[in-house]
């Protein structure tokens, strides 16, 4: 196959040959791979064919990968890619970088993986095969999904689907549509998901792709269930089950039955338990341990809803054993949530506290991993942006160069014409060139605007990723303080509120904007927690206008929280009298929203003196991040956000006023 590749000129056939070679490498032992690699490298030197070296590294990398020796695989894949780039073999180089990224993903190093995915994407257009570009887009979309970046993931999946349609890869297109539907479901974008489900069913039927059709109906069922259309949902899932039964494909029957059981919880509760049991049995029969564990947990949750705590506890013990035996980490948080609720219902507060502490340790570990990966992601993403910007610039220069060459050719042609027509033709050539330059200037300005917008979006994402860890770690420190110095009963109450707050924050952190309702719920939870911690040292009030449509407005997530946190920590903490914090929202006649955070604490000047005395070198990032976000909001969304401080006297205190033109949900959907 190596010699076939070297002699082949058609990009599509080269793509197929590389795929076949990688499949064949799975059959090699490590010793066979080393011998074959040595032979190729020797031949490369003797025959002066550097590409044989590239294939030597590729074969070794593949076999190391199949033997699960990922570090060695990454080394040889990257080496292969670099050598291929030197030889201007874009397709081979792209495969090398892409495979290295796959290994890094398997190791959990998502930030580094994104760097290589982007490198593969930049090489893909040079390969001559649209399938290589589609692969690159899909892999980046899949990786962004692991970062929970739904918008970015969806963007690349749409590009993949467009290319699939272009090259008539209809089966691959159906697969990628189902992946995109899953992204929309994760982002609660059910309207778009429903439209895609209809397209998915239609395209699957057109090409008689039965497995894909069953997947489409399954996703359609989930979308209808999420929007409370239970009869339609049941019809969809029955179609999916029937198709797989006709195909004698039981590999995902457990998953289909579990979805049907969830629907029956609303339509036919008596049958739901039996369907859950069938799902568990089906997953177990197909050695799908994760599916089996998920089905048992769903059944335990249903028993809990029925107040059948005895059976709920039995099923939770089964889940715990599977998590322990098979290290199923992705389901452990849901298990701990249900276990905590059950113990609390049973009055076992001490055991419930232990479960909460275990969950918080797990969440803190996950958060640290997420922050590490997000940091790498942001760095890699910015590197990619610079590369793409440079490529755009080079492409523009190339276009200008082509226009200049064309102009020269026209001039030489004109010299051969008679003098009679020279003046007239020169005039039209001048006008034509003038129009081209005008169009070129317009396109260049548009490109600059697009690039500027992308930079601003990148900065917004970076600032948002800094803000969420800042808030979470402050809250975790508060929990640690309270557990160490208070009694278990109050600690349980505090931890319960923190659990709810963490879930709210994690949900909000998926979005650049959240509704006012969601933001105020998080603020209220935070103030309740701090009020407990400071033993009712202060009271608070959240004052809202009477407008019913206030819930339609969006604000940046975590916008208000830093000022509320400052009011507590710098205003209330050092106050000798009972404090009061007011969070007030007013919708002004001119359509602007005014958010006021007011406290009767010791004031900013006294707080600054105490802070300087305690730690003169410490620098708080909360205000700096939020102020930067407000500046970016003004640039991107034109909300005219303004921030004002007012120092109060007699009594002392601080008043912070944030005013902006609010963004409606309709405007945000149109922007995205």
Automatic annotation (TrEMBL):
InterPro entries: Bact_2-comp_sensor_kinase, HATPase_C_sf, Sig_transdc_His_kin_internal, TPR-like_helical_dom_sf, TPR_rpt
SUPFAM superfamilies registered for this protein in UniProt: ATPase domain of HSP90 chaperone/DNA topoisomerase II/histidine kinase, TPR-like
Keywords: Coiled coil, Membrane, TPR repeat, Transmembrane, Transmembrane helix
Species whose genome carries this gene: Portibacter lacus
Keyword Coiled coil: yes
Segments traversing the membrane: 411-430
Protein name: Signal transduction histidine kinase internal region domain-containing protein
UniProt keyword Phosphoprotein, yes or no: no
Start and end residues of each Signal transduction histidine kinase internal region domain: 459-538
PANTHER family, per database record: SENSOR HISTIDINE KINASE YPDA (PTHR34220:SF7)
A GO cellular component entry from the record: membrane
Coiled-coil intervals: 353-406
Single GO MF descriptor: phosphorelay sensor kinase activity
TPR repeat start and end residues: 134-167
